[in-house]
Amino acid sequence: MKEWILMGDDRGIQLESCEFEFRLRTHLHFGAGKALQLGRILKEVPYRRIGIILDPGVAGQPYMQQVLEGIRKEAFEDIRVWTYDLKEEPDYDALDRVKPEFMTGGRSAVDCFIGIGGGSVIDFAKGLATLAVNPGPALSFRGFPAGLTPSLPIVAVPTTAGTGSEVTYNAVFIDRAGKRKLGINTEHNFPALAVLDPLLVVSSPERVTISTGIDGLVHAIESYGCRRSNPLTMVFAREGFAHVYSALERIPDAPHDTGVRAHLQLGAYLAGISLMNAGSGPAGALSYPLGVHFGVAHGLAGGVFLPPLVAHNVERGFDYSALHDAIAPGDRHLPQEEKNRSFAWKIQELCQKLGIPDNLRVFGVNPGNVHLILADIDSLGPAFAQNPVDFSVDDGKRLVMRMSGSPEPSQGA
Ligand SMILES: [Fe+2]
After folding, report:
1. Which of 44, 172, 255, 291 could form a disulfide with 183 if both were Cys (CB 3.0 to 4.6 A apart)?
2. Is the peptide bond preceding residue 335 cis, with omega within 30 degrees of 0?
3. How far is the CA of 220 from the centre of ligand 1 (A)?
4. What's residue 9's pLDDT?
C-alpha cells in the first residue's frame, strides 16, 4: 500500500485546523472500448435528442465510425451533428454562428450536448449548452456569469488527454476584439457524463499528445502547490502527476501504446479534478497571453514555463518531495533538499526529452514584440498569488523577458 495515500501528511498540514470544499460531479465511464457503449449510456439517462460537436480530426477514423454507429443504432428521436471546423481556438462569434443548428422555433432542439474531440471541442459543447437555454449573444456571458438558467447536460468524450475539460466547468473562448481569453465559466458546465476510452486517444499524433499531455502535467504540479490546495486535492494531484509523468516519459519511445495513453488519460483526469478544486498557478496563467498573441497551444505554452517555475519554487524552499516520492519511490530515503533538487531536474529533463522549447523566441517572441505579453501580465497577479512561494508580476515580466532574449529590467524596476 502506498503510505502517502493517507491524507493530511503533505507539507505539515494540520487536518484538525483545515477546512475546505471539494466538488466532483461527473459520472465517469473509463475503459478501452467504452465509447462503443455511448449510445446505450445516453439512452439509459435517458436523453432523447442528441446534439453532437464532433472533431473533424477524428471523424473519419474507423473506431470513431463505430462509436457514431453505436449512437445511431439506439434510435434517438433526433441526432444533430456539427463538425467542429474552426481553425483556431473557439471564440464567442463562433458560438453565436453555430447555435441555430441546435435550435427549433427559438427553443433547444436537443436534450444534451456531447463534445467528441479535444479540449476546444468539449469547451464548445459547454458554451452551446449554456446558450441553448439562455437567450443573448455569447459575449454577454463572458467570464463568470451569474444567475443563468442551468445549462443543458454536457457529455464529454475526449480524444486527446491533458486538458481535464471532461471534469471541469471552465470553457475557454477568445474575445478577438478585446484580444483576451475569457470563457463562459459557470458551475452548470460540469459535464454530467465523461467517457474516457484509451482507444479514442491512441492514434492521436505524438506532437499533439505531448502538447496536450503537458497541460495535465502543469495542472498536477501547479494545483498541488497552489495556495488553495487541500488534503484531498493533493491526493488527486499527486496520483495524477505520477500517471501523467510516467506516461509522458514513455511517449517518445512508445507513441501509440494503448497502456501509456490510458495512464495519460487517467492522470490528466485526476489532475483536472485537483485543478478544479484548488486552482492553478503562474505557468497556466502565462500560457494565455502566449496563446492569444502568438497562437501557441495552451498546453504547450504552459509547459514552456513549467521548468523555470518549478526551479523558482524549489530555490525558495517549496517542498515537492511527495511528488518526487511518487515517481522515484527508490529514492525515498534521500534528504528532502536533495529530492527537491532532483525534482526540478526531472521536470526540466522531461520537458527537454519531449522537445518543449526552453525559450519564447521559437514562437516568434522577441525584444520588439514582447510588450504584447508584458502588458497582459499586469492582470495575472491573482493567478500568480496562488503560487506557493512569492512570484510577483515583476517576476513574471522578468521571466518572459529572459525567455524572449530581451534585456531584463533591474530588480524592482
Ligand atoms: Fe490548462
Report:
1. 172
2. no
3. 10
4. 52
Interval 213-270: pLDDT, tens:
999 999 999 999 999 999 999 999 999 999 999 999 999 999 899 999 999 999 999 9
11 CA → ligand 1 middle, Å: 24
Q: Provide the b/e sequence for 311-336 (b: ≥16 CB within 10 Å).
A: bbbbeeebbbbbbbbbbeeeeeebee
Instruction: Tell me the sheet residues that pair with 194.
Output: 28, 156
157 φ, ψ (degrees, to nearest 5)? -125, 85
pTM over 0.85: yes
CA atoms within 13 A on the CB side of 282: 29
Q: In this structure, which residues have their CB less than 5 angstroms from ion ligand 1?
A: 215
Inter-residue contact 240 to 217 (CB < 8 Å): no
Which residue has 491512441 as its cell numbers?
A: 202
3-class SS of residue 45 = coil
How many whole angstroms from 380 Cα to the centroid of ligand 1? Answer: 15
Domains of the chain: 3-14+205-403 (1.20.1090.10), 31-201 (3.40.50.1970)
Ligand 1 mean position, distance from CA 163 (Å): 6
Q: How far is the CA of 214 from the centre of ligand 1 (A)?
A: 9
